[in-house]
Task: structure prediction
Amino acid sequence: MIEISSSEIKARLKFDNPWWSSGEKSGLQVETLPRRSYFEAFEKLALDRSVNRAVVLLGPRRVGKTVMAQQLIQAQLEGGIPAQRLLYLSLETPVYTGLSLEKLLGYFTEEFAHSRDTPLLVVFDEIQYLRDWEIHLKSLVDSFPRYRFIATGSAAAALRLKSRESGAGRFTEFLLPPLTFSEYLRFIGEEDVMEEQGVDEFFHAKDIEKLNQHFVDYLNFGGYPEAVFSQTVRTDSARFIKSDIIDKVLLRDLPGLYGIQDIQELNRLFTTLAYNTGNEVSLEALAQSSGVAKNTLKRYIEYLEAAFLVRRVFRIDQSARRFQRATAFKIYLTNPTMRAALFGPISESDPAMGNLAETAVFSQWFHHQEFVENLHYARWPEGELDIVGCDRHRQKPLWAVEIKWSDRPIEDHSLLRHMIAFTKRHKGMEEPLVTTKTKRGSAIVDDAPFHFAPCAEYAYTVSKNILARATAASPKTSEFQTSLPLVEKPPAKPGKKS
Result:
């Protein structure tokens, strides 16, 4: 049997690292692509040599992890770092199959006569293709403290599990989520449609109709960078997103990681949850409709959360108390674009628009892990509130938002009765906000003050201010959850910087 020779491997390494011969230019397409808003925080973390850790770049499929890793290399080249100190390896390349990280690194150091003290930057892309990658990577971190190792991968649930099991003290996780609404507008060159209001740091649209059209486009395909820049992907998002992103997670990543036998059962559950994004679901109802035991359903939902496909938000009652046995909860896709890929694109008048708008707003909040833990929805016999930000230490609601894709609430105040009751019950809350489709304003209703703002404006404001926190990450933190500024509570007013 003919084996791959070392000369062939070295030739492939040179092909994958064209800057070794070209110098300053990476020779990659990433030179022309815009950077995610997370890039600066990721760069600081990746290049921090004060802590001997590898950085594991996690995230759902197709959110730009490979591009960001390659842009890191490009930034190093532009900063004057010698090209021969930068290594990029995609472990899904067939030539590298069966080779250990140590062997591949050895080819690189041998080629340029690097010593263990040479400060190198090494990127292992799609690291999940290497069996027991976490053991190999931990060994490299211990053996070469002067090298900086970056690992990326699409099997996010598997990477996170193995990173925490075997990489304790040696790996730092960095989560790259889907595009926010503000990033999407920047990517398409339309962010100037927004202007900041200096009083409360809320952003207003110069043209609300134009902003709403961008918002609908964002819901349909804007969560994935490649879809933003490719007309082919936009016109066939079902094939691109469903086949290349959702199916790979449901049919390969999760079954392989958790030993799931009935893949179709998992697929049916995800389809049901995706269709009901923004709705309250219960384990009882899901069990009855699917014929799957509640304990199994609970595990499946936990797996889907680990893969960054869905997120549960839990209920509080009118007194802001969490239920001890939470058998009912609201379910949200972490990226609203997935629903359009499964069930077809929507228009601004689609009946599903209300739930998708609510999903989009929540997906902006999901970019800050600390805030997400404090977000709930309230439901009691007389009413419901979509978002309630709570002080988790005192079990006290701080602010509330009702997500609507309609101008009716600003015209018909009878629709606010449930919010009035909740606000009066909890003195000291911030003035509640109700989103609309196009109108903004304020009103005193039954002695309770309310603010109204278009939903797309609110989604942009949340994403813009959340990103301001996320991109202020400290490079010395050990987990993504703590790499963001920790606060005791969500912003005092929804969307407002604290």
Remarks:
- Residues 237-258 form the longest helix (22 residues).
- The CA atoms of residues 49 and 273 lie 43 Å apart.
